[in-house]
Specification:
Blueprint (H helix, E strand, L loop, with lengths): L6 H24 L6 H14 L3 E2 L11 E5 L2 E3 L12 E11 L2 E11 L4 H19 L7 H12 L5 E2 L5 E3 L6 E5 L16 E4 L2 E3 L5 E3 L6 E3 L5 E3 L2 E6 L2 E4 L10 H6 L1
Antiparallel strand pairs: 1-4, 2-4, 3-12, 4-5, 6-10, 7-8, 7-9, 9-14, 10-13, 11-12, 14-15
Helix pairs in contact: 1-2, 3-4
Bound molecules: magnesium ion.
Length: 261
């Protein structure tokens, strides 16, 4: 069942996602060679609590940290730790916040130092796929229209779309109906209505779409070791079109601007 949120609920979701965006905006500026993923995670927890939220990833099915930080060939669900970032790597940061019972969730990939051309293009295509997916998240369209917009953005680029992880509804649970695949499945899925709130999150690999999960049960990486990028926004469908909820109140920089620095 897909829940249609009231304007009061949308205000709370905007607040939760605003904290997420604030954290991502700050963390993106701290992505540089030498910093550890743990340092980024501690910064995130402090900012989330300062904003009046609670980190929602920690404890989720036993996840041990406030953020997922996924470096280069890690697609998603990387666990922060003593690993230091190196120049030339893609650093994908995913943040979840609970605020007064409502969830925020967003992610972006950030360039650590100078990236090679393939990584720059991979990040650009993934960010554009997200933007194009959001653009068709309109009342009257179907979930599959979002999937198709993402798939068509990636087609012809020589990259592959991760199939094992998908976008999702979000609200009073971190993951709600519907699932939002980043590829066309052949079923058009539910029709979109004003008041639906979704996390749209394409994950694109430079090589194979196949995923391997480490023994820690979380770290999901590309089966061929090639890099991956991940961009995510939480949005609400309104009568006039989609509104991005994961926007910082203090910064107008887009994910694309934060990614390239
Ligand atoms: Mg998500």
């Amino acid at each position: 069942m897909i829940i249609l949120r009231t304007s009061r609920e949308i205000d709370l979701l905007r607040k939760a996602n605003g904290i997420v965006a604030e954290v991502l905006t700050t963390l993106a500026d701290h992505v540089e060679p030498g910093i550890t993923t743990q340092e980024l995670d501690e910064m995130a927890e402090e900012l989330i609590r300062a904003g009046g939220g609670v980190p929602s990833f920690v404890g989720y099915q036993g996840f041990p940290a406030s953020t997922c930080i996924s470096i280069d060939e890690v697609i998603v669900h990387g666990i922060p730790g003593s690993r230091r970032l190196k120049g030339g790597e893609i650093c994908s940061i995913d943040v979840g916040v609970k605020y007064k019972g409502y969830y925020g969730d967003a992610a972006l990939s950030v360039a650590c130092g100078e990236l090679d051309d393939e990584r720059v293009r991979l990040m650009d295509v993934t960010n554009r796929a997200l933007a194009n997916g959001i653009d068709v998240a309109r009342a009257g369209n179907y979930v599959e229209d979002i999937s198709r917009a993402v798939e068509e953005t990636v087609a012809g680029e020589g990259f592959s779309i991760v199939r094992s992880f998908v976008g999702h509804g979000i609200g009073t649970e971190m993951h709600e109906d519907p699932q939002i695949p980043n590829f066309v499945t052949g079923t058009r899925g539910p029709q979109l209505k004003s008041g639906m709130v979704f996390a749209i999150e394409p994950m694109i690999n430079a090589g194979t779409h196949e995923v391997r999960v480490l023994d820690d049960g979380w770290t999901a990486l590309t089966a061929d070791g090639k890099p991956s990028a991940h961009f995510e926004h939480s949005i609400v469908i309104r009568d006039g079109g989609p509104e991005i909820l994961s926007m910082s109140a203090n910064s107008s920089r887009s994910w694309g601007e934060l990614a390239k620095r």
